[in-house]
Amino acid sequence: MSYAQRGMDWVRALPKPAKIVLWVLFLVFLFALPLLNIPFITTPDSDFGGVLFTVSTYVLVALGLNIVVGYAGLLDLGYVGFYAIGAYTVGVLSSLHGSWPWLWTVPVAIGAALISGILLGAPTLRVRGDYLAIVTLGFGEIVRLTLVNSQWLNGAQGISNIPRPPGAELFEVPSLDWSSGAPVVDLSNTTTFLKFGITDQIPYYWLALSVILLVLLFDKLVKDSRVGRAWEATREDEDAAELMGVPTFRFKLLAFALGACIGGLSGALFAGKAGFISPDSFVLLLSILFIAAVVVGGAGNRWGVILGAIVVGYFPERFRDFADFRVLVFGLALMLLAIFRPQGILPPRRAVRAIEADEKLEALEEGEVRV
Amino acid sequence: MQYLFDNFWALTITGLTLGAVYALVALGYTLVYGVLRLINFAHSEVFMYGTFAALWVVTFLGGNATGSIAQVIFWIAMMFVAAMAMSGLIAVLLERFAYRPLRKRNAPPLIALISAIGASFVLAEIMGLREKITGWFGLDTPLATYVRNSRNNAGMPEIITPQPVFTLGDYAVTNVDIFVIVGAIAIMIMLDQFVKRSRLGRGIRAVAQDPESAALMGVNRDRVIQVTFLVGGVMAGAAAAFYMLKIGITRYDAGFILGVKAFTAAVLGGIGNLRGALLGGFVLGLAENYGSAIVGTEWKDVVAFLLLVVILLFRPTGLLGESLGKARA
Fold first, then answer.
1. Tens digits of per-residue pLDDT, A300-347?
2. Considering A1, A131, B217, B253, which has the largest number of Cβ atoms within 10 A of its Cβ?
3. Is A148 inside any structural domain?
């Protein structure tokens, strides 16, 4: 059992009030993270608030993709398509062909992603697993190429002047300064609470973090319900699940549609923060990075997936010194991880138990263990 | 629509040359899928290394458009040897470092895909950073012709000028077109016979059919898998040499789109089926060209992917079905 696993078990064994206190402290820490400017963690070469926002979108996307890949076991290589549909719905309604406020466009973006998820899933989820990967890969490229070629969507120029999320200027939050070696409260460098401006990106991070918490709650409710168990049964053995009365196709479609919704939501967030989107923001490489985030962390375990998204989103930003070599290093890291830790950094507990059981069975067959 | 009829033969011939390249690369996907049941995501990089080997060897030998016939034949032969050797080597290395360690640990198929994606990044980036990497050893100046501007397009000197041989409709079919189409088909017939008749080919089919029984019958599975990767790589190398003759430009990330297309071709024909890869490649090349003539060139890639989606919906096993293992002995 890994240290991470042991840590998780230790937290689980705590009494409930202690757990709640720990959680609240952790949440406060997360929200304060961009203000603390902790040395070494803070990115020296790019704005830390912006980096944290990028990492949060990765986390959000990874949580959505985890429903599809981790829970339902469907390999989706075109997830960036839903992300793009969400972002472009926001762009079209709020800037290019309308002037809706950002907040109103978000539900429409989620709805558009949901519909495209059902339209793509309904015919393709009947084909075999590895073909699904290729059909979705094709879907992601079709979405991108349509964006590039469609005059109505402004082609390769993209959409600019997307309005920002609604905010208010309530109070100033100071940040910490570590330049003297010890933390000092710096009153000159403050963030206005909930002012979604251009220079200060911290409020976007807060928004994304809040959305992540909501999605996490939703994720937990769904995973622990009948739906989550149906997904698990379908993933482990589709024929057996079907025989036990699980309508596997409908549950697969549900997973696909829910994943698409979260993808669309992340796209909408991205559009609201960036203010400008173009087809270049939705390249296929992004789909692959998303998949990598899910699998690196441990498909099926929401905490593992979050960790994976942080690894994939954060490290390339932190180590910009190796800018030229970061894709190379990332590729090497993926290979090493696949070889030495194939279940991901934090695999689901059930998978760990299954592996242990397998090993025991094998040992029994080999006659190394006497019972 | 009128454009399609006016240029029917031009579209057909260029579609076939492109299709020949797709088909050769598709063989690599199909072979590996046949024996390992996994998508070799990094195969596109195997192809890309072949294009560079072809380019470097022609540059090294000083190839140009004014060579005598003997010289041109020598250049082309060297180009094929270099590209096939390079791609074969890369494919074998790929198997050794990205797939074999996973197989030893019984990793799930999704993990093999992740490892392949990683390998694909590593291979592409090594090529894209070759100027910097050779710079560490102080070799960037002596090798400048080969490594300069490593993130931009690299072009090959033209060694055969395309000359019309005969006309079809109003399109003059050139010697390069004929060479690419006929050459690709010849190579594929050779491969088909190799898999069908040779001892190693029988091993490949046995492993594709039932890996465990094959192992029990004394087939060395690791060796067969290695040979499969080698053969797939050599085919991709041949494709790369044809590609450089016809297109003449490559880049460190040139493999990606072509790889996706070739995979489409493999699935189109029925993945795991060698003849299916040939058919799929040609069908894809033609469909892409006809389709883009109707709806506009900028939609070319969309046509290819839509075709794939439609085929998978109505005939999920591809045009000819999956049968590397089931091919009769």
1. 888 888 988 888 888 777 766 666 777 788 788 888 888 887 777 777
2. A131
3. yes
A103 and A166 Cβ atoms separated by less than 8 Å: yes
Interatomic CA distance for residues A123 and A132, integer angstroms: 10
3-state SS class at A277: strand
Task: Provide the domain limits for residue A24.
Answer: 3-366
**Residue whose entry in the numeric block shows the structure tokens 């609604």:** A166
d(CA B266, CA B259): 10
Judge: B120–A331 Cβ closer than 8 Å, yes or no: yes
Quote the tokens at residue B314. Answer: 């109505």
Look at A134 and B117 and tell me if their CB atoms are within 8 Å: no
Residues 285 to 314 of A: which have CB under 8 A from any B CB?
Answer: 288, 291-292, 295-296, 299
Question: Are A131 and B312 inside 8 Å of each other by CB?
Answer: yes
Residue A272, helix vs strand vs coil: helix
Residue B139 has pLDDT above 70, yes or no: yes
Q: Is the CB of B312 less than 8 angstroms away from the CB of A148?
A: no
Identity of the residue numbered A76:
D
Alpha carbons B101 and A341: distance in angstroms, whole number: 12
Separation of alpha carbons A292 and A295, rounded Å: 5
Q: Do A334 and B114 touch (CB under 8 A)?
A: yes
Give me B34's structure tokens: 């046949």
Task: Give yes or no for a contact between B118 and A338, defined as CB atoms under 8 angstroms apart.
Answer: yes
Sequence-distant (≥ 6) Cβ neighbours of residue B186 within 8 angstroms: none
Please classify residue A31 by burial: count the beta carbons closer than 10 Å to its beta carbon, then call 0-12 exposed, 13-18 middle and 19+ buried.
middle
**CA distance, residue B298 to nearest chain A CA (Å):** 7
Can you give the pLDDT at residue B2? 75
How many C-beta atoms lie closer than 10 Å to residue B265's C-beta? 33
Of B82, B84, B102, B104, the closest CA to residue B94 belongs to B102
Q: What's the complex ipTM?
A: 0.83
On average, the pLDDT of chain A sits at 82
Q: Is residue A371 part of a domain?
A: no
Q: What is the pLDDT of residues B153-175, one digit of tens each?
A: 888 887 777 778 788 777 888 88
Token output for A217: 């709650």
Residue that is written with structure tokens 């196709």 in the block: A249
- Inform me whether the C-beta atom of residue A352 falls under 8 Å from chain B C-beta atoms: no
- Show Cβ contacts of residue A358 under 8 Å, excluding neighbours closer than 6 positions: none
The tally of CA atoms less than 13 A away on the side-chain side of residue B108 is 16
Q: How far apart are CA B87 and CA A305, in angstroms?
A: 36
Q: Does A139 touch chain B (CB under 8 A)?
A: yes
Q: What is A87-99 written as a DSSP string? A: HHHHHIIIIIS--
In whole angstroms, what is the distance from residue A174 CA to residue B304 CA? 55
Structural domain includes residue A183: yes
Q: What is d(CA B194, CA B189) in angstroms, rounded to the nearest whole number? A: 9
CA triple B108-A58-A348, angle to 5 deg? 35
All residues at 6 or more sequence positions from B91 whose CB lies less than 8 Å from its CB, including other chains: B28, B43, B46, B229, B230, B232, B233, B234, B236
Q: Which helix H or strand E contains B249, and what residues bound it? A: strand B249-250
**Is A339 close to B125, i.e. CB distance below 8 A?**
no
Amino acid at B88: G
* Sign (positive or negative) of CA dihedral A325, A327, A328, A334: positive
Question: What does the alpha-carbon distance between residue A117 and residue A82 come to, in Å, rounded to a whole number?
Answer: 7
CA separation for the pair A14, A16 (Å, rounded): 6
Q: Among residues of chain A, what percentage have pLDDT more than 90?
A: 21
CB contact, 8 Å: A127 with chain B? yes
Into how many domains does chain A fold?
A: 1
